[in-house]
Amino acid sequence: MALSDGVFKVRLQAIEYGAPGINLYTFEALDGQPLAAYEPGAHVDVVMGPDLLRQYSLLWPATHPARYQIAVQLSEVGKGGSRKLHFESVVGAVYEMSQPRNHFPLVPSDDEFHLFAGGIGITPIISMYRQLKASGRRVSLYYWAGSAQHMLFHDQLCRERQDDVRLFHTRSSGAVPPRLKDVLTTLPPSAQLYCCGPQGMVDEFDRLTLDRPEANTHRERFSATTDALQPGDSFRVRLQRSGLTLTVPAELSLLQVCEAAGVDVAYSCEEGVCGACEVKVLAGQVEHRDTVLTPGQRQRSESMMICCSRGVGDSLVVDI
């Protein structure tokens, strides 16, 4: 486990109920001094125990200059980070945290914005909605969840609700709510589209936007792909700056082999989700397994996440 950016300590200042299975956690600086500024889409690493580090989106705007707030959904199938926070956290406890990173930023545009969220994916999406509304941009938000009760920020969105907020209840006994496809097919090619939600939703978003300009489609996944950490074929790689040629066996990642060789590399989640271990690819073919790069970026193979993605054959050269 490693924090890729400067680590600092924070105190858990408050725990609030958000929705069934979702709590809001507010952390504050120990000295009360302002924390680093960030934009919607940013996330931080939170250390919750030895070898237990997880990434969470920051809610924007900050409730206080010296505080960060995250929303955490209890997961029964994860590595235990959410269970630690839900069942073992105590207000006043001190945690280690990284500086904010942002691989899901809002791109400046004069065109209209359409934001799509599913479940806990509302965390970065509502932050984007808030900033776009505050700046007077044309924006629409679409949010799918099982019911009104299971919608994080439901009451707030209802209070602010205008024609630009659409809430869809997938377990409703009434009329079948619109699907992602039903909405996307009505939007102009110039629209800026952002999506965050479960894997199936983001996969569908990628399929439905293949013919749109890559610069107009943006997504964030909050879980690793099923094959991210599975064994693969062995491969050889040239570390250009280090002057080393390494063999990566089937059961190890390039990240692990670099560490074993004494090469200092940045990383965090080790699942291809956070983007901290991204390195430039100088030559060769890559089997991409991350959830950070867009389909177009994977096709160009100008960079890779060394914690999960793999080289093909003996031709890979990276800027390490």
Structure write-up:
With 320 residues, this protein is α/β, with parallel strands linked by helices. The protein has helices spanning 81-88, 122-134, 154-159, 180-184, 199-208, 254-260, 295-300; strands at 7-19, 22-29, 43-49, 52-57, 67-73, 94-98, 113-118, 139-145, 165-169, 192-197, 217-221, 235-239, 244-248, 278-283, 286-287, 303-305, 310-311, 316-318. It folds into three domains: 7-98, Beta Barrel (Elongation Factor Tu (Ef-tu), domain 3), CATH 2.40.30.10; 113-221, 3-Layer(aba) Sandwich (Rossmann fold); 235-318, Ubiquitin-like (UB roll), CATH 3.10.20.30. Strand 1 (7-19) and strand 2 form a beta hairpin.
Q: How much of the residues is beta strand, in percent?
A: 25-35%
User: What is the terminal separation in angstroms?
Assistant: 19 Å
- Silhouette: globular
Strand order of the largest sheet: 4-3-6-1-2-5
Oligomerization status of the protein chains: single chain
| Average pLDDT figure | 91
CATH superfamily of the largest domain: Nucleotide-binding domain of ferredoxin-NADP reductase (FNR) module
Assign the structural class, choosing from mainly alpha, mainly beta, alpha/beta, alpha+beta, or little secondary structure: alpha/beta
Q: Into how many domains do the coordinates divide?
A: 3
Write a short abstract of this structure:
This protein has 320 residues and is α/β, with parallel strands linked by helices. It folds into three domains: 92 residues, Translation factors (Elongation Factor Tu (Ef-tu), domain 3, Beta Barrel), CATH 2.40.30.10; 109 residues, Rossmann fold (3-Layer(aba) Sandwich), CATH 3.40.50; 84 residues, Beta-grasp domain (Ubiquitin-like (UB roll)). The strands form four sheets. A six-stranded antiparallel β-sheet has the order 4-3-6-1-2-5, covered by helices on one side. Strands 9-8-7-10-11 form a five-stranded parallel β-sheet, with helices on both faces.
